[in-house]
C-alpha cells in the first residue's frame, strides 16, 4: 500500500523505501527490497511523493519523528531513477 495515496498495488508498481541510520537517518530506495528494518512503499509518481511529504507520511511510516522525505523531481519527465540518484547523493 502506498504511504501517500493509501491505494493498494502490486509490489512491482511500488518503490520500497528504507531508512539508513547513521549520524542522521536518511531515506533510501531499496531497489533490491532486501535492506533490514521497517520499509515503506510508494508509487513511482511525483504526485505521490509530493503528497507523502505534505502529509509527513515518511516520518509516520518509519516511526522516526521529524524525518522528511526527499524533494521530488519535477513532474514532467518523472523517472524514479533520477529520484534514486538524487537521494543517494545526499
Q: What does this protein structure show overall?
A:
The chain is an alpha+beta fold. Helix content is 29%, strand content 18%. It is built from 3 helices and 3 strands, in the order βββααα. A 3-stranded antiparallel beta sheet has the order 2-1-3. A hairpin with a 5-residue loop joins strand 1 (14-20) and strand 2 (26-29). It is globular. It starts with 13 loop residues before the first strand and ends with a helix. The mean pLDDT is 80.
Fill in the keyword field for this structure.
18% strand; 90 residues; 29% helix; alpha+beta; 3-stranded antiparallel β-sheet
C-alpha Rg, in Å? 12 Å
SS content category = alpha+beta
Write down the secondary-structure element order: EEEHHH
Q: Biggest β-sheet: count, sense, barrel? A: 3 strands, antiparallel
Count the DSSP helices.
Answer: 3
Biggest β-sheet: strands ordered side by side in the sheet: 2-1-3
Distance between the termini: 26 Å
The geometry reads as globular
Mean pLDDT: 80
Number of strands: 3
Approximately how much beta-strand content do the residues carry?
15-25%
Report low-confidence residues grouped into runs of 5 or more. Answer: none
Give the helix proportion (percent range). 25-40%
Summarize the model shown:
The protein is of the alpha+beta class. The chain has helices spanning 46-55, 57-62, 80-89; strands at 14-20, 26-29, 39-43.
Amino acid at each position: 500500500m502506498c504511504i501517500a495515496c493509501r491505494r493498494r498495488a502490486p509490489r512491482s508498481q511500488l518503490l520500497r523505501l528504507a531508512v539508513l541510520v547513521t549520524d542522521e537517518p536518511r531515506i533510501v530506495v531499496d531497489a533490491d527490497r532486501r535492506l533490514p528494518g521497517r520499509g515503506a512503499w510508494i508509487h513511482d509518481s511525483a504526485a505521490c511523493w509530493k503528497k507523502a511529504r505534505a502529509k509527513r507520511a515518511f516520518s509516520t511510516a518509519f516511526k522516526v519523528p521529524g524525518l522528511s522525505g526527499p524533494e521530488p523531481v519535477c513532474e514532467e519527465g518523472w523517472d524514479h531513477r533520477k529520484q534514486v540518484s538524487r537521494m543517494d547523493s545526499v
